[in-house]
Amino acid sequence: MNKFYFSLMTIFLTGCASTSWTAKNSVDEFTDKKSCKVVYGSDFGKGFSKGLGGIHYYPFIEKIDGEIIFGVHNDYNIPVGDVQLRIDNNKAITISYTETPVFYSASTAQKVDLSYMKNIDGIDQKAMQSTIDSTMKNVQKISIPFTATSGGKANLIIEQMKKGSELKMRIIGFGTNSTQSTSGKYIIDSQFKLALEQCEI
Questions:
Q1: What is the mean pLDDT of the chain?
Q2: What pLDDT, on a 0 to 100 scale, did the predictor assign at position 18?
Q3: What are 33-51's pLDDT values in tens digits?
Q4: pLDDT digits (tens, 9 = 90+) for 137-174
Q5: Which top-level group of life is the source organism from (predicted)?
Q6: First-residue to last-residue Cα distance in the chain
Q7: How far apart are CA 22 and CA 61, in angstroms?
Q8: How high is the pLDDT of residue 76?
Q9: Residue (of 21, 63, 12) closest to 42 by Cα position
Q10: Directed axis angle between helix 43-51 and helix 2-17, to 10°?
């Protein structure tokens, strides 16, 4: 009985460890924006890992509204912080949470009525509004449940992954140098390239 239980657990753990890449299409029910996301791991594998305890992090690539991002999320949908990653022997890349694109934001909430200050000497309303807007965006980025980058850095990561075989990644705190988790390794295989093709990336 013990041998059977051990063998069964080995199968489950091996199955979860060997999860690969898949493509998922979705449409936002409020904005009708279409997106295609290349994600690492199956829902079953992630659920099993979550059941074992701890926080597990997963890389993803998403094409949304014509923009392509590379990001990292976790199985509890909580903020990630800064991320360091390295593909094979390429130079390590750091992604700050401040780079994360804000797709859905209450822009009207960022505008503060400063008209009562218009007659106060030394007050630059435009500069103050700009500071408020920047602060609000940073608050939003801190609360977003993933860290991501777009543009040239995202393209660089994706191009390296297309030619690579392994992605190493570790999570760092918000603007600190102390790592918050051990390094994780993710295999880059033919399923990754197939998922990219399915998302037309």
A1: 75
A2: 46
A3: 889 999 997 654 554 454 4
A4: 555 556 688 899 999 999 999 999 999 999 999 998 76
A5: Bacteria
A6: 49
A7: 10
A8: 84
A9: 21
A10: 120
Cβ contact 169:72 at 8 Å: yes
What CA–CA distance (Å, rounded) separates 58 from 22?
12
For the beta carbon of residue 54, count every other beta carbon within 10 angstroms: 11
Q: Using alpha carbons, list the distances in angstroms from residue 77 to 40, 60, 116, 134.
A: 15, 14, 40, 24
pLDDT, tens digit (0-9, with 9 covering 90-100), for 75-90: 888 888 899 999 999 9
Distance of CA 193 to the CA centre of its chain: 19
Instruction: Give the count of alpha carbons within 13 A of 57, CB side only.
Output: 27
Report the largest interatomic distance among the alpha carbons of the chain, rounded to a whole angstrom: 83
What number of residues does the chain have? 201
Mean of the pLDDT values across residues 113-124?
54
3-state DSSP of the chain: CHHHHHHHHHHHHHHHHCCCEEEEEEECCCCCCEEEEEEECCHHHHHHHHHCCCCCEEEEEEEECCEEEEEEEECCCCCCCCEEEEECCCCCEEECHHHCCCCCCCHHHHCCCCHHHCCCCCCCHHHHHHHHHHHHHHHHHHHCCEEEEEHHHHHHHHHHHHHCCEEEEEEECCCCCCECCCCEEEECCHHHHHHHHHCCC
Closest CA to 158 of 51, 74, 60: 60
Q: CA–CA separation, 36 vs 68, rounded Å?
A: 10
